[in-house]
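Subject: design request, 238 residues
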């Protein structure tokens, strides 16, 4: 069954950062795989002309949990509304992966009805400077009425760049909800069309711990019944 185009009970999570190479697709696909395991099947929308998210979906094993993929490469008012026509009624969570080099108009379209915005940021001086300016503009654009959080990506603990990222974003009052490691586990999972929640737990334990922090933040924000991280891991990895 396909939903009404004006359905308003979807939880829409936008992964956004106009700078390329910051890990938007990694975050989007891992969230999608988690919600697929948790059920009901989520929708994963690929707005990037490069189609990285679609390629990941094409790699997924036939016996993996279902994810509804939508390739929506054309950014326009028409496109940002009609994707809802293709989302099954059972779906309650929509994850939107976005391309690099977005303009103000496209960002406004993508975030206008978002329930929250996640911004992956690499802990390098250039990325931090870019992200700081972008977040300040985004908060003004959204008039501070949509929750925004940062996910530090590909980090190494106890480095100067990570400390600088934490300090600057604290001044912007934008929470950093997780610090994802610079881990090969994400690459191995992506090559298989999987997320880290679908990998052997003994290999991904540290990565799952940080992803759980993102899930906990989303659960509280989207008024779902909170799921204890350890309990969810026990269920998924049993």
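Subject: RE: design request

Done. Sequence follows.
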């Amino acid at each position: 069954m396909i939903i009404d185009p004006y359905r308003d009970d979807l939880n829409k999570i936008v992964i956004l950062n106009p700078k390329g190479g910051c890990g938007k697709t990694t975050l989007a696909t891992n969230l999608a795989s988690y919600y697929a395991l948790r059920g009901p099947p989520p929708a994963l929308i690929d707005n990037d002309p490069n189609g990285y998210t679609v390629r990941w979906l094409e790699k997924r094993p036939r016996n993996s949990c279902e994810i509804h993929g939508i390739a929506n490469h054309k950014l326009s008012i028409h496109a940002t509304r009609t994707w809802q026509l293709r989302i099954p009624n059972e779906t309650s969570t929509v994850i939107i992966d976005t391309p690099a080099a977005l303009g103000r108009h496209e960002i406004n379209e993508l975030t206008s009805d978002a329930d929250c915005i996640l911004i992956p940021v690499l802990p390098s001086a250039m990325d931090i400077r870019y992200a700081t300016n972008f977040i300040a503009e985004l908060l003004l654009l959204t008039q501070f009425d949509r929750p925004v959080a940062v996910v530090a990506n590909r980090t190494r603990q106890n480095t100067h760049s990570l400390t600088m990222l934490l300090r600057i974003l604290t001044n912007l009052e934008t929470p950093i909800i997780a610090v994802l490691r610079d881990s090969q586990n994400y690459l191995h999972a992506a090559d298989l069309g999987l997320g880290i929640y679908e990998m052997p737990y003994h290999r991904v334990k540290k990565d799952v711990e940080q992803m759980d922090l993102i899930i906990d933040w989303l659960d509280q924000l989207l008024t779902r019944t909170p799921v204890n991280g350890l309990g969810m891991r026990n269920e998924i990895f049993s």
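The domain at 11-223 is CATH 3.40.50.300 (Rossmann fold).
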